[in-house]
Amino acid sequence: MKTKSRKKLKYSLLFVLSLFLIIMVILMLNPLRHSKEGIRARLLKQTPVGTDMDDVIQYLENQEDWEIRYVNHTSGYNYFHGEPYEANVGTEIGEKSIRVYLGEYRNPLAVDVSAFYAFNADGKLIDAAIMKTIDGI
After folding, report:
1. 136 — phi, psi (to 5°)?
2. pLDDT over 80 at 83, yes or no
3. Please, what is the average pLDDT of the chain?
4. What is the pLDDT of residue 117?
5. What is the distance between the alpha carbons of residues 11 and 40, in angstroms, rounded to a whole number?
6. Helix (H/G/I), strand (E/B), else coil: 73
7. Angstrom distance (rounded) from CA 40 to CA 127
8. H-helix or E-strand spanning residue 2
9. Which of 44, 57, 113, 134 has the most CB atoms around its CB within 10 Å?
10. Taking every pair of C-alpha atoms in the chain, what is the biggest distance, in angstroms?
11. Cβ count near 72 (within 10 Å)
12. Could you tell me the CA-to-CA distances from 59 to 24, 28, 51, 67, 114 in Å, in that order?
């Protein structure tokens, strides 16, 4: 009788562990769930520092689920307390900029993910930053 009980417990634990691993894999397959540094590194791998602004725009337009929110040829993006910032506060990064909406995921609230690209006066990429905002906060 104890053997059946142990087998049942063993299979139950194996099932729970397998379910947990499947959920973790599904969550990690969504690149928006990665750290901001991880997302930034991936974007800079695809569009390295020095890439021309027009080439970055073309790359962004080829991404199905992304939406370019603005292309600014007169100013960079603002950086405040280590985060890209919408208002005119903090330090301006670059002389031109692009903001692109990458998408959202649930955590359990909606988390929106955006990328900011900064360019020098010649239109060459100098930096990128990621912003995650939580719905309702």
Report:
1. 85, 0
2. no
3. 88
4. 97
5. 41
6. coil
7. 9
8. helix 2-29
9. 113
10. 78
11. 15
12. 30, 24, 11, 12, 15
Query: Do the Cβ atoms of 74 and 97 come closer than 8 Å?
Result: no
Written as one letter, the residue type at 103 is G
Question: Which residue matches tokens 């562990």?
Answer: 17
Element (H, E) at 98: strand 96-106
Token code pair at residue 131? 């912003």
Task: List the structure tokens of 25.
Answer: 């894999």
- In degrees and rounded to multiples of 5, residue 30 shows phi and psi of -85, 110
| 53 three-state secondary structure | helix
Tokens for 63? 């991404």
User: Over 80: is that where the pLDDT of 16 sits?
Assistant: yes
Instruction: Give the position of tokens 């020095």.
Output: 50
Question: pLDDT tens for residues 20-74?
Answer: 887 777 666 788 999 999 999 999 999 999 999 999 999 999 999 999 999 999 9
Q: H helices within 30-92, ranges in order?
A: 36-46, 53-61
DSSP-derived letter for residue 85 is: E
